[in-house]
Each structure stands twice: as structure tokens, then as C-alpha cells.
Amino acid sequence: MATPDAQPTEPARWRDLDMLLSRPGNLVAASFDPSPTLRDEIGSFAEVLVVGAGGLGCELLKDLALSGFKNLHVIDMDTIDVSNLNRQFLFRVQDVGKSKAQVAAKRVMERVSGVNIKPHFCRIEDKEIEFYSQFHIIVLGLDSIEARSYINSVACGFLEYDSNDNPIPETAKPMVDGGTEGFKGHARVIIPGTTPCFECNIWLFPPQVKFPLCTLAETPRTAAHCIEYAHLIKWDEVHPGKPFDADDAEHMQWIYSEALKRAELFGISGVTYSLTQGVVKNIIPAIASTNAIISAACALEAFKLFSGCSKTVSNYLTYNGLEGTHIKVTEFVRDKDCLVCGPGTLIELDTSATLSQFIKMLEEHPNLRISKASVTHEGNNLYMQSPEVLEQMTRPNLSVPMFELLKEVPCATVHATGMAENNGKKVSSLRKLRVAFKGVIGDSKMDTTESS
Amino acid sequence: MATAGVVAEPKTKYDRQLRKRVFDGESIVFIILRKSFSFVNLRLVSNVDEGCLGQPRAKSICSFLQELNDAVKAKFVEETPATLIDTNPSFFSQFTVVIATQLPESSLLKLDDICRKADIVLVAARSYGLTGLVRVSVKEHCVIESKPDHFLDDLRLHNPWAELKQFAKSIDINDKDPVVHKHTPYIVILVRLAEKWADAHDGNLPSTRQEKREFKDLIRAHMLNVDEENYKEAVESSYKVSVTPGISDEVRQIIDDNSAEVNSSSSDFWILVAALKEFVANEGNGELPLEGTIPDMTSLTEYYVSLQKIYQAKAEADCLAMEHRVKDTLKRIGRDPDSISRAYIKTFCKNARKLRVCRYRSIEEEFSPIVSEVQRYFTDEDYSYAMNFYILLRAVDRLAANYSRLPGIFDSEIDEDIPRLKTVAASVLSEMGLIGASLSEDLITEMCRFGGAEIHPVAAFIGGVASQEVIKLVTKQFVPLRGTFIFNGIDLKSQVLVL
Ligand SMILES: [Zn+2]
Description:
The structure holds two protein chains of two kinds. By secondary structure, chain A is an alpha/beta fold. Helices cover 34% and strands 19% of the residues of chain A. In chain A, the strands form two sheets. Chain A has an eight-stranded mixed sheet, with helices on both faces. In chain A, a hairpin with a 2-residue loop joins strand 5 (175-181) and strand 6. Chain B is elongated. By secondary structure, chain B is of the alpha+beta class. Chain B has four domains: 16-139 and 456-497, NAD(P)-binding Rossmann-like Domain (Rossmann fold), CATH 3.40.50; 162-242, no CATH class; 249-358, no CATH class; 367-450, no CATH class. In chain B, strands 3-2-1-4-5-6-9-10 form an eight-stranded mixed sheet, sandwiched between helices. Chain B has a two-stranded antiparallel sheet with strand order 7-8. Classes of the chains: A alpha/beta, B alpha+beta. The structure holds zinc ion. The site of zinc ion (ZN) has 8 residues of chain A, from loops. Chain B: Pathway: Protein modification; protein neddylation.
């Protein structure tokens, strides 16, 4: 409405955004400092990471670029599949097979001048923890609970606590998380130490219900039972030692034909190829407009968090479009004992305990049970399980006492990455640990903390 | 993020066709005719996408849309929407849906009138600073496939028909074979035990809380072992025996609607409703046609498949009876008895419990709402922001009509615009019959601060909601928004107002 039709100069182009950023208001964050240069300051200062370049990620990159953010990064290990084209609107037929992150970054930069997007075509676990520390805000557009959980633990890992176990606000790395399933979705703001983290409310994401194996083997009743029989039982019987690959069309075809045979045998109807794919890959149909709504909410919250130009959502929004447009905001509370965003699990060590003994303790610790842990301290690798080069480089540390490795301080915070059980599944996890050395002067604080 | 197969449903395909999420999309009347679109806009691209600066906006949007999906036919008209509404109202009659974005109140009123007369769905969307709205307007929208999230299975355990009873009798629920016993489906257990209960209670089923508890005990008494899943399911589903027979109030209202008195100009939907009314009164014995599907439950495959067939057969018989009623009805009103397809009747029968009729007041009618409703919204803490925004969004258009600009456009005049907006808002309130009601000073100030700014994520949110509603309206699946959705971009607590 307010934009003139003439060739715009740079400020004219952003005039609408500037109105919001340059004028004082009554319903704004305490930190809001309105100024005609605020947009420029945000643009040049803020580093934002978008995790995922799929249905949500494409929308997020566009929304953030058009909200004045200029330095964006995007990380996604996937390549573009032809089935993505109906809603991941930055991709075209000729892009099939290319990296989602790279194509998405290029497309948005072509359309919005002045924005710089750095793509990362890799797994989120492939990046060093320090990679994530450069961002002021992390926006998640993911469809997997495991990936969310991982990024959440990384971001919460940066949170430091003072000597009274109060979180230090300056160390909090905010996240905005979005997710959709069909006509439903959620958008939430996570400020570690202030609002609940992903793990505090993990119960919001109940694990997938699996069919009992005896049903699959003996009394199948539905098409899904026949498909899961072929997928979970028959495949291994017929192809011992050959892992099933859901992305291999021949494998999928085999599952489909086996499921069909079984369905015929038991007089069950409804096995189709698309259902087979749906069941095996656990696909929930994605709808473009739901993605648009949720991403827009996430981008708006990121923009408001950064600029302070309004309040932010507290702290969890759900959208349901099945019947009308139903939006609900719920204020969840933190789990004070959260292993991820809390002060960290306390581990008491003898000054003689070596790194390899420490790693063994993590495996046996009742609350942690991290197997094959890699350990870092303030960004330095103490021991890395992989890659091989790093493993070789850090192997000598294994026999060195932790007290020595941690420069003989009475207590320190270290991070351990490894496989741990989460929501009934073994997934790669990051845990923050507070190491205290027994009998070392200066650890008075640790004496009062209950040993876990 | 790998997705395939399942997503290629018509609705998602449609979705993509209906998208307007190109990089700049303001002040456009955006019009849909199934697979083709027209855009009406006079202004040139001036904002963000530098590749098309200076081109007509409607034109560049068409080319973006075709880039997204080359099956889309997109046309553009270089004209201001207001002029077109005033000078060529018949232009709109070619469309199924008209989406009006950022249209001021006066033009919207006229457009709504044009669309209503031609039975066209109008969706109005507005993005304004950190607020905005989406409103649906159409005389009537009937939904067969409303696809609700949680809906009670149609098992008829309270009123089993002969074949179901007979099948239940053929299975000995006291069979001591542990494999058979723990694989007897709960439908069979409940039919048998409900009968047993009724025999001991003068033919009545459990209805009081105490009786329901005793009925559960009766089920548990038949367990051979505590870990029999089928008996656990039977206990959990025991309430299904006690459901109220007959039809829900919502469906009753549809059946009793005046439109169910059909004539030659009635729509297929209402002809089916008329047939349904007769079915309920006759072969339905007070019940709707059976849905015909059962949920998964612990069972021997053989028992489960037999049950599926029994339910399917009853559903087919009901559907056939409905088909006869539909043919008779069509004959009676002088239409070809075969003019409604079997497939349509079948879908209708399967969804008979979930029918929805949405009727919308016109925008003009909305402007004189029921005072008590508005007052209720104002005093309800959850709705008061939405109500404030609603009034203020109307007030800014009034003010713009007087001053030829929106309030707060110029930094220098914000201070004067605040009391001006307050005065205009007060007149909107009093027109609605709300004399003495007052608006939040903070929100009045916010509206002036916004100065009509279009903030991209807000526009994207509003555009997303509008597209979602258009998909539902065009595909006639799911239930569309029933009123005006007010976006609250401050704390995201948005609401729907039905005025
Ligand atoms: Zn937590």
C-alpha cells in the first residue's frame, strides 16, 4: 500500500519493515531500541541458521530473507526428489538430484538481492559443535524428531550456568522450531534456560506405535500389517545380511509384491504401492499451505526475537486447519531436571580417573548411558571416535587423567556426543556434563549439589 | 525429508496450483477458475524482486505462477480492482472463487454483493502491520467429506443387525482354547455380553455410571488371563455399547432444514439429504446408513475379515436403499433419475454422520451484528484482542476514505492520527450498537505505528491461511473457516470471530 511505483532506492524497498523498526510502541520487548538504522544493524549483524531445506526450509529462507535478515546459512543433507516439487517451491524439474541446501540458497539469492545464504550440504552431525556457536538464532524446519533433538541438545549445550545454578542469559542460543503434519502444525520459541527446550516437553512427540511382531507373523488384519510383515520379517528371511534401503525402488517394489501376496493369502484388501511407501517410510502427507503458515509464524518470531519490535509467543503455538482455522497458544513450563537444558549432569571424578575411565562411566551412568562417547571441552577435542584422523590424534589422551586434561581446575563443563536412548530409540545425542574432582579445594559449590 | 507417493493426492496438487506465494503479492484481486487464474492489479512491481521492477505486478505474478506449475493457466488484467468492481461487475461471474487481498471496505462490500448474487465463493485477506484477517463469504457451502480428526467408529453395538448378531453367536466366547479366546474380536465380545446384559436388565443396555462399571466387570469376568489384549480392548470400548441410538443433533438439523424440501432447482447435496430423511424414517429405523468400516482390533485374521465383510455388506445394502430413494426423489421433482452418480451416493452414505452445512452472513450483514455476541467477544479475555483488531481494521479504512491515506503513514502525523483513529473507531463501534464500549489504547497506538505496513511473514501467514481455506472450499473436503480469522502477530493468539 505504501510503496511508491517508482524505481525504489534501498530504503524505499524496505519502507514497510522500517516503519515497524523505527517507531516506538507500547507492546514491544523491553530491549526494543527503535531506530531508522535498526534494520541495517540486524541485517549486517545477525547470523541465522536454517536447519532443513525442505517444505518448511524453502519457505523459511524466503520469509527470513524478506524480513531483513542478510546473513543466512542453511544445512540439509538431502537431494531434491521429483516428489518434492509440488510444495518445495524453490525447486524445479531440472534441479532433481541436486543438493536442496545449495539450490534453495541460490534461488533465494537470485530473487532477493543483498542477501547472502551459505549452503551446507551435509548431515547436521557432520558439523563440529563449534560451527553452531556462530549463529545468533537457529530456525528449525525439520520433519524428524531425532534431528530436532540433536540440534536442541547442541544449542542447549552452549547455555552456561552461574555458581548458583542460574542460567546466564547471554549464553542462551534461541531456537525457533516449526513442524507440520497434513493440516496441522506447530511453531515454538525455545530460549534455553528460560522456556522449555525440546527435551523438556518430549512427551508432545510420542514415539511411533509399532505393530506387535506376533500380529504381523500370525494374525495380520490390515494392509499395513501385510506391508510391515514383508518389510520387517520377510525381507531378512529372504535377503539375510542385505540391509533394506527404502530409497531403492527395487527394494520397495519387492516389499509391495510380498505384501500383496500376503494380503491375498489372508483375504485382506487395500495394499497399494503408495500405501507401501507410506507405511515403510512413515510418510505423513505434507501440505504446502500448512508449511507456509508455520514457516511464516517461525520467521515472524525470529524477526521479533531479534528486533524486539513486539512481544514473542509464549511459547508454543498449534495450528489445526481440519475444521476452520484453529490456533492455540500454550505456555509450557521447563522441566527443572532436564538433562539437556539444565545445568548438566554432575559427574564426580577422582583426580586419578583417566579419560577412558570417564568414557566408561558415561556408558554405565543410569541417566546417561551414552555409548561410544566423543568428549570435548570448550571446543577442544579431548577424544573423538571419528573420523579416523582425529581418533588417532586424540587417542593418546585416553590414558591421561581428566584432571590433567582439564588443566587441574576443581570443576569444569564438558560435552559428550554418542549414541543414547531417546524416546525408545538409540540416536546420536549430545549431553552436557559437569565434572567435579573429589577433594580438590574450590569445589564447595559441588558439595551442596546432590550427586546424580 | 524424503517424501513420495502419498503426497501426490489431488488436494496437494491443487494446493500448488492455488499458491500465490511468489515474492511479492500485494493489492491484488486474485481469481480462480479451477485450473486457471486471473489477477487484477494496476500497479507495477516496486518492492523486492528486482528482476521484474517496473513490470505490471499482475503480469509478473502470472509468470512466477507458471514457473511453479506449467499446467496452470494464468491471466492478468491491468486494472485497479476497485474500478473493475464499479465498471464491470459481470467480469467476476466466470470464476469459482474470488480472492480479494488488501481491498478496502467499500470495494469489498460491493464485491461481496456481486459474488453472492452469482454464487461465487469470496475469500478476503488483509495483511496490516502485525495484524490481518481472512474472511470467507458465500451463501452456503455443503461438505460431505468433512474428515474430522476423531470420530466415533460406526459399529452399531447398541443395535446390532441380524447378520452381526448371528456371526457373534457363531463364536463361542467361552471357548477354552487360549488362542481362540484371546483372538476373539472385541466386537463379538461386546455384542454377546450386551445381549447377556440386556437379558438380565429388562432389555436395557447399561446407561448409568454404575451400570457401565458393572458392565466392565462383566467383561473382565470373562477373561481367562489378565493379558488378553482383546478383552482389554473390549473394556476400553465398552462405552460404544451405550451410545445414544439415532442421529446427532447436527445431522438432525440438516435433515430438518428447509432446503431438504427439494424441488427441481435443488442441488444434488440437498436431494441426497431429502433421500436420507426418508431412509432414516423407513429402512434405517431411525439410524443413518452404516459407514461400513471397522477399526483394527486384536483378532484372528479369519474373524476380522468376516466381520469386515458383514459391515461392508450392510453398508452396501443401506447404500442401495438410498440409491432407490434418490431415484424416486429425482423422479418426483422432474429430474433424470440417473443424474446423480452411484459413486456420489456412496460417498454421501459413508459420510452421512459427518455432513456439514456452512452458511455465511454477507459482509453487509456482518456490519450490523448481534450486539450481545459482539459484547461477549469484547468481554471474553481470549477474544478481546481479536475484537479490537477487527474494529480497528475497519476503522483504518474509514479514516483512509476521509483523509486519502492510512493512519500513521507519515512519521510526522502519527501523534495526530492516534486520536483521529480513536474517533473513527468509536463511530464504528456505535454503528454496531456498542455505545460506550472502548478500545485498547495500546492497540490504537499500535495500528498507527503499523501505518499499513506489509510485513512479509505476516503477509505469508495470511496468504497461507487464505490458500488453505480456498483448497477446502474448492475441493469441498474438510471444514472451512466459519467467520473472520483475526491474526494477532503480537503474541500469536489469533481467533475466529463469527459475526
Ligand atoms: Zn530441557
